[in-house]
Amino acid sequence: IKESWHRMETAIRHNGFEMPRKKIVINLSPADIRKEGTAYDLTGAISILAASGQIETDLLDKYIIMGELSLDGTILPIKGALPIAIQARKEKFKGFILPKQNAREAGIVNKLKVYGVETLSEVVEFINGNRELEQTIIDTRKQFAEQQEKLEGTVAWIKPWEKKGFLIGVVWDELVTKEQNRWLYYYLEETLKASV
Q1: At 17, phi and psi to the nearest 5?
Q2: CB neighbour list of residue 131: distance below 8 Å, 6 or more residues apart
Q3: What is the rounded CA–CA span in Å between residue 138 and residue 134?
Q4: pLDDT means per 10 residues in the chain (196 residues)?
């Protein structure tokens, strides 16, 4: 908590805002759910700026805002962006503002506006209505089709096993990227489900 507080305070000052010199309490309720990690740094900094009247508050209840803050206000990636995005959509939030490095992960969730940001200043300018953020939209069907085309040679020899309802093992030499690996895993998983 102390480290997070130090990051928030330094980032706020570094970006030209004032850190209020009075007691500040940030309530992360519900209390019975454990909160850990640095994902709440950006949330806390924005809350402090809003409570002290330094930024507008009209949009704050419409967005989930999360990210780790560095001392200069740069926003660093967080863990768990996808489940957070799914929950945000379920709870009818308009959007999710998070580190740019996590935007593609969260962007696969439809019916939720996902904005990747790099600095605390970008978030403040957006909240104050002085900046438009680029929405991250991932068309999973299109990407799956593209990956299937790239993997045609690899996947072609798997097809005969589909009819038997099982796969013994997959070995490939030209599969180089993690993204291709994920798509192949997804393809195999769907194939197995369909054959059972």
Answers
A1: -105, 165
A2: 122, 125
A3: 13
A4: 85 93 78 79 95 94 96 95 94 97 93 97 96 91 72 52 43 46 60 52
Which amino acid, residue 17? F
Q: What is the pLDDT of residue 167?
A: 43
Q: Rg of the chain over CA atoms, in angstroms?
A: 21
**What are residue 113's phi and psi, to 5 degrees?**
-80, 125
- Among the listed residues 12, 26, 138, the one whose alpha carbon sits nearest the alpha carbon of residue 85: 138
CB 65 within 8 A of CB 123: yes
Residues 100-137 as b/e (b if ≥16 CB within 10 A, e otherwise) read: bebbbbbbbbeebbbbbbebbbbbbbbbeeeeebeebe
What's the pTM value of the predicted model, to 2 decimals?
0.72
- Find all residues with CB under 8 Å of 49, minimum gap 6, and list them: 12, 17, 55, 124
